[in-house]
Specification:
By secondary structure, the chain is mainly beta. The protein has one domain: Lipoprotein localisation LolA/LolB/LppX (outer membrane lipoprotein receptor (LolB), chain A). Helix content is about 10%, strand content about 45%. A 14-stranded mixed β-sheet has the order 7-8-9-10-11-12-13-1-2-3-4-5-6-14. A hairpin with a 5-residue loop joins strand 9 and strand 10.
């Protein structure tokens, strides 16, 4: 297979926070090595939305139909959460771009009670990480947990994708509240022509932030 420069797929999401439920879908483009592009024709009842997330920066989103923009944390945009979650945004970016998913490693030990599965436990910054491999040595799942942040993340990897480059499912659980959200990836396509309007969108000078309305 040719060198992989980008991956595109449809990401469906669903979740709940207390009595509030959310669901929807968006197109996602992972442009290697450091950019994630999001597009939704109808995001959270706000009309179409374009999003650009570059490593080290906050998420920038813009709704042309409403002429509103957003610049900040992904979980605030999606879940309207304000609490301290240092390191969560950067980890989510690294999961979406698979920078945080290492498909090989040493120090495996068999998981008691789980036939054929093996586990590697280590840490990534403040996050405890457990990587689960099947009997063939293929990475199948990664679990992150941070007591400080109060979040647990589980990522199931699409073992059929080249090099395990596509997450099959990502689930976040906020341990100190009744909040969780799940993302399901579908229809992965490699080395697509990413529309320039979804990558290089500009925010007009007269656009207003979401927070003000």
């Amino acid at each position: 297979m040719a060198e992989i420069k980008n991956v595109a797929y449809l990401m469906k999401y669903s979740g709940e926070s207390g009595i509030t439920k959310i669901e929807g879908n968006f197109e996602m483009y992972r442009i290697l090595p450091d950019t994630v592009i999001l597009f939704s024709p109808g995001f959270m009842g706000r009309g179409s939305m374009r999003g650009r997330w570059i490593l080290g920066d906050s998420l920038v989103a813009y709704s042309p139909s409403e002429r509103k923009y957003y610049n900040g944390s992904w979980h605030r945009l999606l879940l309207d959460r304000e609490e301290r979650t240092e390191g969560l945004d950067s980890l989510i970016f690294d999961i979406l771009s698979l920078r945080a998913v290492v498909t090989e490693g040493e120090g495996m030990r068999h998981i008691s009670g789980e036939r054929g599965n093996w586990l590697i436990v280590d840490s990534l910054g403040r996050w405890e990480r457990g990587r689960i491999f099947n009997r063939r040595g293929k990475l199948s799942e990664v679990r992150w947990r941070s007591r400080e942040t109060g979040v647990e993340i589980t990522t199931k990897v699409d073992k059929q994708s080249p090099g395990g480059l596509v997450p099959d499912k990502i689930k976040l659980v906020y341990l100190n509240s009744e909040t969780e959200v799940e993302f399901q990836a579908n229809m992965a396509t490699f080395n697509v022509a990413v529309p320039s309007t979804k990558v290089n969108f500009m925010i007009p000078a007269d656009a207003v932030p979401y927070e003000e309305h």
